[in-house]
Structure formats: C-alpha cells, structure tokens
Amino acid sequence: MKTLLKLFSLILPWPFKRLLLIHVFGFSIEPSAYIGLSWVFPNNLKLEKGARIDHFNVAIHLDNITLKENARIGRKNWITGISTRNIKHFTHQEDRKASLILEKESAITKKHHIDCTNLVWIGEFSIIGGYQTQFLTHSIDFIHNRQHSNPIIIGKYTFVGTRSILMGGAILPDYSILGANSLLNKNFTEPYFLYAGSPAIKIKSIPTDAAYFHRKSGFVK
C-alpha cells in the first residue's frame, strides 16, 4: 500500500503531497520547505524552514535525511545507502548512521552520487559544486573479508569542485576548497587552504578575508 502511495505522491500538487508525506510517512516538513518531482523516501526525513529538494532526485535506503534552514539539493542527484535496518552487512558497526545532513544554507548542486551507507555531513554555507562528484562511504575490508564504512565530513564554508571523489573517513576542514577532479581520501585539518589532486594534497593558502567565507546567504550570485 505504501508503495502505491509513494507513486501517487509524485503527481500530487506540493501542498497535498506535503500533507501525505507528513501524515502517512511521518516526515517533518516545514510549510516553507519543498520537494519537487523526486523519489525521496528515507526512513526519516526532516526539512526545516526554506529547505528545498528539486526535481528528478532519487534518495532511498537511508535512515535519515535532514536539511536545515535554506539548505538545498539540486536536480538529478542519486542519494542511496544501506539502512541500519539491513541486517546482512555492517553488523560489526553498531554505531553506524546511514544519514545525510545538510546544515543551514548548504547545497548539493546537480548530477552527483552520494553514498550514505555511513554519515555524510555537509557544514553550513558549503557547496558541492559542478557535476558528477561521488561520495563513497563504504567499501570492502579485504583483511576481514567484509564490508566496512566510515563517515565523510565536509566543514562549513567549503566548496567541493566538479567531478571529485570523496572516500569514507575523509574530512574537508572548515573554510577550505577542494579542487576539481580531486580524490579526497584522508582527514585534513587546516582551514583556509586549497586542497587538490589525486590524492588531494595541500596546494596553497586562501586569504581569511575571502568574501566566500563571509557570506550571509548560501546563494552565490
């Protein structure tokens, strides 16, 4: 029955779709939030004031998706994971969270692949830019012959360039830039730097007074 209601929700005008998602699926959606023509059905969904998910996204098999105030997911993104309700894998990771969290004024643009088998956390005022970037939180642990996962953390006021790859355990620190076509596979800690390359390394410093780091709105003109 719920599968039929999911299909039905695709053709409903947004005000009616919002009520269906709240009262049937138990989602938390503020009146000013919005979901376009997208298949977005994690176990739990929370959209705060002004949060937006545009058309043609797929977001399934996650425990949780949270978009804070004015956070946005653009078009044609593929967001998947392996929910903790799945008992076939990751039984050794009792604290795993299959979640996507976008802090306020952050954005994922379009045509990206976000694997949220473990937590993907995107800090406030950060942008996953361009196209075809991949977040890969899980892989095979060859030593123990099992699947293993680690979170990916994107700090606040950061920018991730087009066609980058971010692996489980990677951290992009606050106030930093990841260059296009980069592979981020480690935990960096120093802010105000450009990181780039495959694998990414620290390239050069960025002035602390750069206007991008002092935005009051997530939107860049």
Describe this structure as you would to a colleague.
This protein has 221 residues and is mainly beta. The protein has one domain: Hexapeptide repeat proteins (UDP N-Acetylglucosamine Acyltransferase, domain 1), CATH 2.160.10.10. The chain is 8% helix and 34% strand. The longest helix is centred in the first third of the chain and has 10 residues. The mean pLDDT is 96.
Lay out the secondary structure.
Elements: H1 2-9, H2 14-23, E1 28-29, E2 34-35, E3 39-41, E4 44-47, E5 52-53, E6 58-60, E7 64-67, E8 72-73, E9 78-80, E10 99-102, E11 107-108, E12 113-115, E13 120-122, E14 127-128, E15 134-136, E16 138-141, E17 146-149, E18 152-154, E19 159-160, E20 165-167, E21 171-172, E22 177-178, E23 183-184, E24 193-197, E25 200-205
Parallel strand pairs: 1-4, 2-5, 3-6, 4-7, 5-8, 6-9, 7-10, 8-11, 9-12, 10-13, 11-14, 12-15, 13-18, 14-19, 15-20, 18-21, 19-22, 20-23, 22-24
Antiparallel strand pairs: 16-17, 24-25
